[in-house]
Amino acid sequence: MTSIPQRDAYDVVVIGAGPAGLAAAALTAGAGLATLLVDENMGPGGQVWRAITTTPVKEKRLLGDDYWAGQRLVDDVRASGAEILQRATVWSLDRTLEVGLSIDGGARLVRAKRIILATGALERPFPIPGWTLPGVMTAGAAQTMLKSSGLLPQGRVVVAGQGPLLWLLSAQILRMGGMIDLVLDTADRRNRLRALPHLPPFLTSPYFFKGLAMMREVRARTQVVGGVTSLAARGSGRVEALAYEAGGRRSEIPVDVLLLHQGVVPNVNLAMAAGVRHRWDDVQLCWVPELDERGESSVAGIHVAGDGAGIGGASVAVHRGRIAARAVIEALKPEAGLALADHATLASELARAERGRAFLDVLFQPARQFRIPADETVVCRCEEVTARDIRESVALGATGPNQLKAYRRTGMGPCQGRLCGLTVTELMAEARGRTPAEIGYYRLRAPVKPITLAELASLPKGEDATKAVVRG
Amino acid sequence: MTRADAIIIGGGIHGCSTAVHLCLKGLRPVLVEKDYAGRHASGVNAGGVRQLARHTAEIPLSIRSMGLWERIADIVDDDCEFESHGQVLVAETGEELAACRARVAELEALGFSHEELIDAAELRRLVPAVSDSCPGGIVSRRDGAASPARTTTAFRRKAGHLGAIVREGMGATGIRRQDGLWRVDVGSERFEAPILVNAAGAWGGDIAAGLGEPVPVETVAPMLMITSRVPPFIAPVVILRGRKLSFKQFGNGTVLIGGGHLATPCRDTGETILDWRKLQESARTVFELFPVMRGATIVRAWAGIEARTGDDLPVLGPSAVHEGLYHQFGFSLHGFQLGPGAGAVMAELIVDGSTATPIDGLGIGRFARPSPPPAPRGQP
């Protein structure tokens, strides 16, 4: 591991050291391509294998077998000769394949012949009344604390939402001796029928038994209420209570910590800022990059792998990482590509890993009321813009997220719409009676991660090598 | 075929302003915008409302426009977030101050009084955060800033309310003159009118050239950055005389950093590729001049596509070749403040046949003659 990039230019820069990035970098470096693997965390592993090399949680049973499966990929990439840069934030990427990154308070620009984006997933926004109160956090944030520091949520804990990660986190908290007062399952029961045609491949996928076992484990140790159709956090200064409705019955319970989660969506921020074309996925209800069968995007030289290419989970991410890496090796060093499994083999392995996914995608489509909030709910927390404000702006003439900026400061705050973007698109689409694809998304620009003025000022002045960049 | 009184191509602040002013004079124009109003330079510029440091040829237009800015809410039913805390040009050396002195004297000789020479003490009073070594500068006290996206959108909406036909999302094609009328196609629609206004910004040069009036014009994309909120420390807009920097703090504490460093524009896709080495120069200048800014976070960097002419002055006025054709483009990084005034002047030219605002140096005919001297480069 190095602490600043050792070169100004690489054959390949892989962004993100989760399953896809680790698998890709191990292959490209192993093929003899100068490979830089950049990651913003303390160690490799991404979200799913976060802190795999450093976690204080050593008892393997607690985090589960899938977690520890990451160790082998980490070993591979470390042996491959890839240059690994941890705690490095990539804040810019453009179609000239110049990467802006920041490490230890200093900024650098590096160039690449090819880019593999493995930026993973983000949690889908979950805008319910009171979601911005202190004490309300995402399940992902809670899991980060659990994996990297062994920290458990304290007090009266309620977990609300749906999706595989919700059950996994609940199981992990309970195994580690944490308490959960209540799990509120918001999965839309009407999805079961719609998902039925996708059931057979799911039954033979690894998801089936793992998922059932985890749900059974959680149900055995805490109360689970299903069919939840509304949620509202209440409190003055911090969350104190949660009101919910299930099966037509309203209840309210006291709560100190509310963990919210309703699935993950591709983290498209860097790809979009680089100009990669995206499309709206009507099943996963999110933006996904337009890619060819080798993971290459509409911007020549930029490949996308892993959950950033569409949610598939860790195993799918590994296969997509290998496919992208193979395409890069073929392009830059064809003779090294001959030693690798051919594309058809990799594609059939990917198809096997993706089995059962279609069932989960439909089953866990979040219900409308949890994606498109009621008027009084805050949508853009940076600038405190409510759903009503946005609907009123639509009535005045705002046609899409970018035009909305002329009416409200939605998406203009510190997060630049990275937290509210999906909500704004779906809300405006509904208000205008259009599809999300017609409404579009915020035009994302660098820096996609914040950098300070001092960091940018520290950027080394252009040298001859860096001046040689052909700007197109 | 839909008949209108005028066809305006381009939904930037200029096209939208001309649409509003034509409506106010009783005409019914069609406004055609290939993306949406304010998509490019008009919606994403620095928002400077500046008479300061302009080429003398456009000062009368700028003064005319300033009067409209000061009652902008009456014109477009929106305050456009216009605020007037002045604009200050900072001299960092004695030599630069001497140049400022000469400039103010030149303007006074021409009868303009909006620029005022200031000494170190007045500079410190206006901009306390400025470095102690700066000996003075120039202030234009009525200047200020506005929200460019909000302003352009407000003009566009007002035009619609006043009866203009607005078409967004499709460009005008097949621009032609037939039977004494200008005709254009917009998707499956066809419009005709006795008047055609070319207000197409970065695309205006192509339209002029296509109609036989080529203008030396390049496509540029000046870059800007905005920071996270910092405690209020500066009210006026600040421009450096010697270095490429302009600086503005908004009421909410965020700071806009500009100065005219250029990105690479892609006119066909509307995208721009930022040049971080140039942005680094801006960051370093701010780092040196305003220590309070060092820990601020850069939230967004961007660039808007626009046209810059060979002499840095806009093309404004009737065609030298065709009847019924008017040009209003090429504002060369400083067109935002001119928008309201230029629309008013254009409406007078079209409806009354003349304007009281002198715009003699801005006509397209000048490119058939030797060029005037270049204007000082500054901020929009």
Automatic annotation (TrEMBL), chain A:
InterPro entries, A to Z: BFD-like_2Fe2S-bd_dom_sf (IPR041854), FAD/NAD-bd_sf (IPR036188), FAD/NAD-binding_dom (IPR023753), Metab_Enz_Cyan_OpOx_G3PDH (IPR051691), Opine_Oxase_asu/HCN_bsu (IPR017224), SoxA_A3 (IPR041117)
Limits of the FAD/NAD(P)-binding domain: 10-321
Sequence ranges assigned to domain SoxA A3 in this UniProt record: 379-457
Superkingdom of the organism of origin: Bacteria
Keyword DNA repair: no
Protein's UniProt keywords contain Iron-sulfur: no
Name of the molecule in the record: Thioredoxin reductase/bacterioferritin-associated ferredoxin
Annotated source species: Chelatococcus caeni
Lineage per the UniProt record: Bacteria, Pseudomonadati, Pseudomonadota, Alphaproteobacteria, Hyphomicrobiales
UniProtKB/TrEMBL annotation, chain B:
Annotated FAD dependent oxidoreductase domain residues: 5-349
InterPro entries registered for this protein in UniProt: FAD-dep_OxRdtase, FAD/NAD-bd_sf
Enzyme class: oxidoreductase
GO CC, one annotated term: cytoplasm
Molecular-function GO terms, alphabetical: sarcosine oxidase activity
Record-linked SUPFAM superfamilies: FAD/NAD(P)-binding domain (SSF51905)
Keyword Oxidoreductase appears in the UniProt entry: yes
Assigned EC number: 1.5.3.1
Pfam families: DAO
Record-given protein name: Sarcosine oxidase subunit beta
Lineage: Bacteria, Pseudomonadati, Pseudomonadota, Alphaproteobacteria, Hyphomicrobiales
